[in-house]
Amino acid sequence: MRWRHRLLHRGQLEEQLEKELRFHVEQHAADLVARGVDPAEARRQARLALGGPEQVKESCRDARGTRWLEDLWQDFRYAVRTLGQKPGFTTVTLCTLALGIGATTVMFTVTDGVLLKPLPYADPEKLLAVHGRSAIWNAAAFGEQNVAYLDFLDLKRATRSLAMAGWLYSGGTVSEPGNAAYVEWREVSPELFALLGVPLLAGRTFLPEEDRLGAAPVAILGYSFWQQRFAGSTAAIGQSVVLDGMRRTVVGIARAAFRLDGDEPDLYTPLGQNPGRFLQNRRAHPVGVLARLLPGVTIAQAQAELSAMAGRLAAQYRDTNADRGFDARILRPDVQDVAGTLWLLLGAVTIVLLIACANVASLLLSRALSRERELAMRTALGASRGRLVRQCLTESAVLGLSGGVLGVALAALGIRPFVVLWPGALPRAEEVRLDWRVLAFALAVSLLSGVVFGLAPALRVPTRHLEQALRSGSRTLAGSSRRLHGAFVVSEIALAVVLLVSAGLLGRTLVRLSSLDPGINIRNVLVARTALAPATLASPARIRIAWDEILERARRVPGADAVTLVDTVPMRPGNNQNGYWTNAAVPPENRQPMALSTCVTPDYLKVVGLPLHEGRFFDERDRMGSEPVIVIDDVLAKDAFGRDEAVGKRLWIPDMGSAPLKVVGVVGHVRYWGLAGDDQARVRAQYYYPFAQVPDAWLRRWSELMSIAVRTTVPPLSLVEPLRVSVRGAANDQVLYEVRTLEQLARSSVARQRFLLLLFAVFGGLALMLACIGIYGVLAYLTARRVPEIGVRMALGASGSDVIRLVLRQSASMIVIGVGVGLCAALAAGKILQRLVEGMQSGGVGTSVGMVAVLVAAALLASFVPARRASRVDPVRALREE
Amino acid sequence: MAEKSELPQGTLDLLILKVAALGPVHGYAIAQRLQQVSRDVVQVPQGSLYPALHRLENRGLLSADWRQTETGREAKFYRLTRKGQSQLETETASWQRLTEAVSLILRMSEGGAE
């Protein structure tokens, strides 16, 4: 604890040092006197022999090991004192920094939570996702393929290198306890929770003996569902829920943070209890497979074993598994589509931070210049250059850290609103929070920005021409510092140009996208997913009757004009893609062109206002047993038949049976992928087929996907409750969910662009403001320093407007260079935007010119104030001051 | 009077330790003694004497206390610690090895080695 002793008894140490050196000098002088030297002369010689007392003391202080700590403390107090003496300067700097660091911290928190944090499972780096692979699977269109249930069971039983668990995506209606409602539900194999290493909140996981047909029906509740339906009471365990008509006993409750593939399901049931025939078919691949590497196994070994297993299955089940393989990959959160947006925003916010740093740097530089005399004085008194640089850096670090503390406080307030404002659901939003990672980031950013903006002023510490610096006072200005100031202003303007031009491009894109025709009439249409009463699902005949009844009842709701069933709705997430061919020689799946497939009832045309270009739409004639028909859109007609007449031609669509389908009509193209995304979508061709011709075998599955769409004569949202009530059904368990208007869907299809525009506009405005403050500050400072020169000019006959021109010329050259550099950078930024934002187009010269004009005007205005002040300089007084 | 030569880098510490080994001594006396012993050949930079003393004290090779001089004044006296003693021995040995090696080489070149 010697260093602490030294730190605490600093005064005493100093006193002793002083005493020791005094003793030396006096002793030396006494010796000289004894040799006959005159006392005054003796003292002089003794002092000369020792050297400058302050320099010697400094070296002695350096020799103490705790020197840096003492200095740090001293510098810290000095910094706080000097900053306190200039409250205006300190406030402006701190606010600037707090804004920059706060905004950056918010963006980092979000990016970290969504993209960087590991998955919230135990040892996530040991977790793998196992996908199916086959030569004909079109992974580009459909993403990774899942695994057949029987294949999964075989793999799970046989692999030695992996532990495995499977899960199946399901939805259903819970009719007890509480009101009937649609729920998100996952059927999982019993190992799932243990495999992920996440214990339940209460109760137990499924037992192996519960994972088979006919076992006691059980369920695990999701946390949110438990909170809503059981008010968070652990007495829920042992009670029951009725899911799709089956009463299940609750055995466990999942934790609040538990997510499966990014979602929080409402319920979990044992996968083995699902009686679906598709689970016994190795051709169907519905099961998501998660795996954990067993200790000491590498992913390559696991992959080798999976490949060997695939070979064995292929030999055993030649007709279903012949070309089937399995791939194991490290499990990663699925956030692909927000990654670009987040990086973009992090980049934008970094630009704001850089501008803030440039601003503070130029403010500090101005101060460093006016302190040049002070620093020269201190050098003359024995301070080393390194010591003064260190002190300047301490001062900026204190500024940076205080700015950082304020910034983190701002960020703490800003994170929730940001997540809420995010268009749609932000994936992994539950991971977004202030934690030590964020604090470490904020600390690093604060210190780094402290160094960045502190370095330039610190390196201005004078070394040579001390005498000149001391004598010249504060009125002269070296060319180098003027250039440095200019560089700060130029970079601020350049960065602001990048943000403003980007915001302009986004705004232009949004305007263009919003004015696009979606291809249908989106006014006054309500769509809602519909879940039939569980009891009706058993028989195809009852399903058909139930849907007819729903349509009939909905039609009778006052304000409803026309009603239709539809499975996939334009601009709503979720689609159905099938390959097609124009003759019977259909090539393998991955070589077929793809089209979006939509199943509808005849009134669809009227409900969404789809324009019919040729032939007819569906009607009562198209039923089970009559010739299978489809209607195609312009794009498909052109792709498949070129300029030939499409009506009357046939299409082969393997997923809809082996019989060809007759084209009876051609309708307009609909911007299915949203206003922003449709133009560059991979699959744009569309076709429609009648719900009445869906075979009985598929009816149950189809019924899980159908929505009703209603064209209304009144504001559509006013119809939600009447509609809900009218379709309830006899058992009160037929429910609507995901109720939207087409207008809402259209708006949300450009929500990402609107959100980006909003943030870029905010950042751009912030950048503009900071840049203007920077220009103002620098010019005010530079002109204040040129007062004597201006005085001379005016004494020699320059007029006030001459002076204004002089100052403005100086700022104009900075602005021009800044805009030039900024436009080059903006060009690059525009390219990045085009890559990451749907619907962005190149060009936009007009918009860019407009944004730059705004910036130039603001910058000139900011420079006008100091210019005007300079023009009012009184030459006599200015000269006298010199 | 012989021309004064500069002290080789790092030897000041060694000399200070050697002087302090003879008994408690204050800074001025160390400077005096170094000059006397080396018969004014060695230029002791007084400015770097005190930083060196403080550095050695800090490294625990010297310890210091305040006591009265013969003339009754208070001065800071430095004393060799046990750690300083062993440091002095190793440094002396290595200094001797070095000088022997250097003079060996110098003799070699005088002898006209190829």
The CATH superfamily of chain B is identified as Winged helix-like DNA-binding domain superfamily/Winged helix DNA-binding domain
Helix segment tally of chain A? 30
**Global structural class of chain B:** alpha+beta
Number of folding domains of chain A? 4
What does the average pLDDT of chain A come to? 85
Number of separate helices of chain B:
4
Proportion of beta-strand residues of chain A: 5-15%
Name of the CATH architecture of chain B: Orthogonal Bundle
Tell me what the structure shows.
The complex is a heterodimer of chains A (882) and B (114). Chain A has 882 residues and is α+β, with helices and mostly antiparallel strands. Chain A is built from 30 helices and 21 strands. The longest helix of chain A is centred in the middle third of the chain and has 37 residues. Chain B starts with 10 loop residues before the first helix and ends with a helix. Chain B has a single domain, classed as Arc Repressor Mutant, subunit A (Orthogonal Bundle), CATH 1.10.10. A three-stranded antiparallel sheet of chain B has the order 1-3-2. The chains are: A alpha+beta (882), B alpha+beta (114).
Which helices and strands appear, and what pairs or packs with what?
The complex is a heterodimer of chains A (882) and B (114).
Chain A: H1 2-8, H2 10-34, H3 39-50, H4 53-63, H5 67-85, H6 87-116, E1 127-133, H7 139-142, H8 149-158, E2 162-176, E3 181-188, H9 192-196, E4 202-203, E5 218-221, H10 223-230, E6 240-243, E7 246-253, E8 267-270, E9 288-293, H11 299-316, H12 318-321, E10 325-330, H13 336-370, H14 372-380, H15 385-421, H16 436-458, H17 466-472, H18 479-514, E11 525-531, H19 540-556, E12 560-566, E13 577-579, E14 594-600, H20 604-608, E15 612-615, E16 629-633, H21 634-641, E17 650-651, E18 661-667, H22 674-677, E19 686-690, H23 696-703, E20 707-712, H24 720-727, E21 735-741, H25 742-749, H26 751-785, H27 787-795, H28 800-836, H29 845-871, H30 875-881
Parallel strand pairs in A: 3-8, 5-7, 14-19, 16-18
Antiparallel strand pairs in A: 1-9, 1-10, 2-3, 2-6, 2-9, 4-7, 5-8, 6-7, 11-20, 11-21, 12-20, 13-14, 15-18, 16-19, 17-18
Chain B: H1 11-21, E1 25-26, H2 27-37, H3 46-58, E2 62-68, E3 74-80, H4 82-110
Antiparallel strand pairs in B: 1-3, 2-3
Helix pairs in contact in B: 1-4
